[in-house]
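Project channel, design review

CF: Before we commit to the Microbispora siamensis constructs, I'd like one complete example in the thread so the newer folks can see what an input/output pair looks like. Taking Glycosyl hydrolase.
RD: sounds good, go ahead.
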Amino acid sequence: MRMSTPSSPTTSPTAFSAAVAAVRAGRPVDEAADDLLAQLTREERLWLLDGDLEFWPGMADMMTNGYNLTPIPMGRVERLGIPGLLFSDGPRGVVMGKSTAFPVSMARGATWDVDLEERVGTAIGRELRAQGANFFGGVCVNLPRHPAWGRVQETYGEDPILLGEFGAALTRGVQRNAMAVVKHFALNSMENARFKVDVTADDAALHEVYLAHFRRIVDEGVSGVMTAYNSVNGEWAGQNEHLMEGVLRGMWGFEGVTVSDFIWGLRDAAASLRAGLDVEEPFRQQRAQHLPADLEEGRASWDDVDRAARRVLRTQLRHYAALTEPEPPLDVVFSPEHRALAREVAARGMVLLKNDPVGDAPLLPLHRDALTSLAVIGRLADVANTGDNGSSDVRAPEVVTALRGLTEALPQARITHVADDDPAAAAAAAAQADVAVVVAGYTAADEGEWVGGDVLADPGLLALFPPPGDDPAGQSFASFLAEPGAVDSISGGSAGGDRASLRLRPVDADIIRAVAAANPRTVVVIVTAGAVITEEWRDAVPAVLVSWYSGCEGGRALADVLLGDADAAGRLPYSIPAAEEHLPYFDRDATAITYDKWFGQRLLDRDGRTPAFPLGFGLSYTSFALGDLTLSAPDDDSFTGVVTVTNTGPRAGRHVVQLYGRPTGIDAVADDFPTRVLLGFATVDLAAGASARVTVRGSTRPLRRWTPTGFVPASLTAVIEAASYAGDPDAVTAPAELALA
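CF: and here is what came back for Glycosyl hydrolase:
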């Protein structure tokens, strides 16, 4: 019988704790894992390969009481003290309990600061471990080929270098206290069609673009890889042997554990095991139902079982043997320290897109002492809006809204809030205020993880559920789920999914224009995760700030930025086009789609389209100049660039230096290769008038193309430039090209 309560490997001497001690003392982890495996019965070996909770009770609890409120256990074996994989989701914090809601990953990507992201990872790992989990499924790095993707908020940006470096930083931070899991492997960037779509991509697109960041995180030592729901080149990702055994383990040398996405992550228990999937998540489902017969009839072998079981054991042994930090107390969860970090991150990531003069100076930052009245406009200004309501939802005990943050920061000012979709009322309030702040954008009803009830109208997905058997509770819940609208009622009608539009609502545009006409000192604050096209109203206002889904301290962070207590330091982690037709084809209900190399800034460059805002763009409250770029010779996959950064403005500020490479002699269309690629980045804080030499680590991997024999340089040399954004006309070019071969 499976154990029913979590067990720590350190509470009493067990076979597992002895194995951990032996590994710490120098015994090879493979030997220790083999010894443990030899002590397991065949039944216990199968226990390692899926969740511990029975399916129907687990589903009922998850869908009625709440998702992942406590650790979800997989593969615990009480007899030997094996703790198992105790799952908690992410990535904007720990979804268990009442944890700290950090800004969404895309907002953190906008900081371009991997040291800050590592600090976030450390905080998440501490909160996770304090609540009894050890397995964090929140390193989400799927590349958003199209900004309408509903879960774009869970990833860091459009570029493989950004995705890889931020995923590696989060992994480093989390793995001080827990095993980190990177997801979703691979080509998961459509939400409504995620259970049915087959994504086709050739090897060049896969290795140059869609797998490159996963490789970087595997190199960092991530403990787990979660597969995707979708099919890749004709095979479901959860049973795709080429991806798991061929690429992940064969090419990259991954030594951790592979796990399925939840409930619908595989379609054939034996096929998934043979293909290299180690654990079916999160409950006893297809493997518990089918694997014993599959083994008996030869559709899978005990060698397959032992291969997976050995990986599960080895991953846990490596993790526990490496732990050096003491177990955090429970009061670390939503602690003042973590709330302060959430505020710092939120402020750091906000991106100032426009800041025109009003009178003799730019509108922002606002001057606190001169503000006697403020109009705060919009339905979202006083809403706790931290992101979607799916598996990444973090239930923070308190969320500081934009209205509250500004009210706290301006106790002397008269603040008027207009929440209704009423342009006339908004304009009237704005006309009576020194400054108007319009908060507009999206909620979980517009974008997020898709939890629509028609999932359970699909007979193919329903067939993956085990029979409810004689359990009355299981029979009752199975009957409930079969009713029309059942899942919608559980989710509160907030189905999320891929965005239907890349623009604000028409009424939001009307409100913005009405407010700007009434008050020339108008700031528009956009709540979003993905790109928002602003062409129909941006000309009317002097200032536009992207505030993202900014976490539990977002309102205070917004006040910090608007009032200049923090510099406007965020930079776009993606490009924003001027029109929808400048983007790749996207059908959110597709059953088949082909992904090529062309998306985002790379596609705009290839087609000669001028973006509304390029990758890496963002204004500061000061100004910076770059000069004197020098390069080191490439060493394996990397090189360094050193550039002088000078703060030429009136106040202290923070700048992001971006290294781009332009392979020589490349024609994007003829050569099917980008003409400019991001290679690295670094941040620097400078006082007014100060200069510093900044070292930026660059990767040469984006300058290579995939061939049947592996990667080769796309050109013999590349021009390297230090820039403030992609295509920056003031970029500084190194005096000599970088030799790549």
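RD: helpful, thanks. The longest helix spans residues 302-322.
CF: Residues 201 and 595 are 5 Å apart (CA to CA).
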